Amino acid sequence: MDTITAISTPLGAGAIGIVRLSGEQALSIALRFFGSSKIKSKEDVVPNHLGLGTFSDGSVREKCMMVYFRAPKSYTGEDMVEFHIHGGTYLAGRVLESLLGAGAVLAAPGEFTRRAFLAGKLSLDEAEGVRAMISAESEAELREAYSLMSGRFDQKIDRLLTLLTEVLSTMEASLDYPEEMADEVDDSLQKALLVQKEMTELLSSYRAGKLIKGGVTVAIVGKTNVGKSSLLNRLLGYSRAIVSDVHGTTRDVVGESIVYKGIKINLQDTAGLRQTGDEVENIGIERSLDAAKGADVVLYVAEAGQTPDEDELANIRAFSKKVLLVNNKIDVFGVTQEGINISAKTGEGVDVLLDEVLRVTALDHRAQETLTEERHADCIRRALRSLEEGISAFKAVNAECVLVDLRESIDALSEIGGGSATDRIVDDVFSRFCVGK
Ligand SMILES: Nc1nc2c(ncn2[C@@H]2O[C@H](COP(=O)(O)OP(=O)(O)OP(=O)(O)O)[C@@H](O)[C@H]2O)c(=O)[nH]1
Ligand SMILES: [Mg+2]
């Protein structure tokens, strides 16, 4: 395999930039440019030791650190070298160019991690955890990503696979010795039911997992001038949207994100709903309704003390399941019986409002293991379907079908860790990585 190289840190001015090499030629290519008083040849390089030296390609010189990881004790399982240089786009580019000129090949997105996967250093879902760690934007997302990357999720799937494999071998043996194995077969059915229950639980955690990964989208809608933009600004903690007492101030959707109790919340302030002849404002109102349709939660804001427009509210409730009625401006109008009372002006009640958003999306109390990746959900859905067919076949005493269904279930489940994943699936997973990881 080629020796690959890439810049692993983001491009731009920074304290440190890292350029990596992985493959058989990593050290010899590196030493064509790097030297120090202690390093005269390959034999002088101590693995896992960060050493100071000079990188020189003849014209550009740079004082930097180099570390060598000897195969198989490296991230990729191959020989690896990292240069820790001064962060700077041009400098990193020059170092990369030198390494490419010396025979290294530019790494494809995620190729380092892909090589680690091929070397058996991590499973496919652990690799997906690495990507999730990098892209995490909230504490909850980071926690789920760590569970994937560290193999905790993988262990759970492995346990289910072990159970299913035991069931399969018992069922296979029972074909030859049906009478002797009656007890074991009974036992197997219990095991299969347990796996079915755990898979169902995992799948039901996926709704929460999706919200953790992408954030909860919350649309702020309501009539003009009720204080929607003021609420957005209050939640953000700065003045993002224009606030005025002119009706119809906001004409477009204004989106910003916050993190509340470790959960990312994508807020969307929208144009106020009213009858108007203004063409542009009407386009804005259409967008408000679209935002409400696409949101996980809709905050229907009204002025406290005023009866909300029931038709409008019913219309929004018709296309959005989670609509919270929010009574704003309680600092002047006092509280209302129905709904959540807040003042965007003083901030009163906004925490209660955010807690309610987490409550209606069931993010306030979460299961131990949460499914966050669509690929995993898809594998488990297929595995569960086959398992359920297998259980029905078992009840119908159709042993041949039970075996076929169990094998299908095992195959679908092992795709998660990459065991039975096709090249296309593996390509797809790594294509979503960044270059240098
Ligand atoms: N007293 C008081 N005034 C508020 C409060 N929230 C908003 N306002 C005022 O209400 C007026 C309208 O506020 P906006 O936030 O622009 O209302 P909006 O719903 O975004 O209005 P449109 O963009 O026109 O749909 C402004 O004068 C705000 O200062 C509140 O909690 N208390
Ligand atoms: Mg507004």
For the structure shown, list the relevant keywords.
437 residues, Rossmann fold, 3 domains, flat, alpha/beta, binds magnesium ion, 47% helix, Gyrase A, domain 2, 7-stranded mixed sheet
How would you describe what is shown here?
By secondary structure, the protein is of the alpha/beta class. The protein has three domains: 4-107, Probable tRNA modification gtpase trme, domain 1 (Gyrase A, domain 2); 126-205 and 371-431, Up-down Bundle (Four Helix Bundle (Hemerythrin (Met), subunit A)); 219-360, 3-Layer(aba) Sandwich (Rossmann fold), CATH 3.40.50. Helix content is 47%, strand content 17%. The protein is built from 16 helices and 13 strands. The strands form two sheets. A seven-stranded mixed beta sheet has the order 3-4-5-6-2-1-7. Strands 9-10-8-11-12-13 form a six-stranded mixed beta sheet, sandwiched between helices. Helix 4 (124-135) packs antiparallel against helix 5 and helix 7 (182-204) runs antiparallel to helix 14 (374-395). The chain is flat. The two termini are 18 Å apart. The model has no long low-confidence stretch (mean pLDDT 94). Magnesium ion binds next to helix 9.
Task: State mean pLDDT (0 to 100 scale).
Answer: 94
User: What fold name stands as the CATH topology of the largest domain?
Assistant: Rossmann fold
Low-confidence stretches: none
CATH superfamily of the largest domain: P-loop containing nucleotide triphosphate hydrolases
CATH architecture of the largest domain: 3-Layer(aba) Sandwich
Report the top-level CATH class of the largest domain. Alpha Beta
Proportion in helices: 40-55%
Could you tell me the radius of gyration in angstroms? 29 Å
Total beta-strand segments = 13
Distance between the termini: 18 Å
Bound molecules: guanosine-5'-triphosphate, magnesium ion
Question: Helices and strands, in N-to-C order?
Answer: EEHEEEEHEHHHHHHEHEEHEHEHEHHHH
Shape label: flat
Task: Describe the strand arrangement of the main beta sheet, using strand numbers.
Answer: 3-4-5-6-2-1-7
Report the β-strand fraction as a percent range.
Answer: 15-25%
Structural class: alpha/beta
**What number of domains?**
3
Number of helices: 16
Largest β sheet strand count, sense and barrel closure: 7 strands, mixed
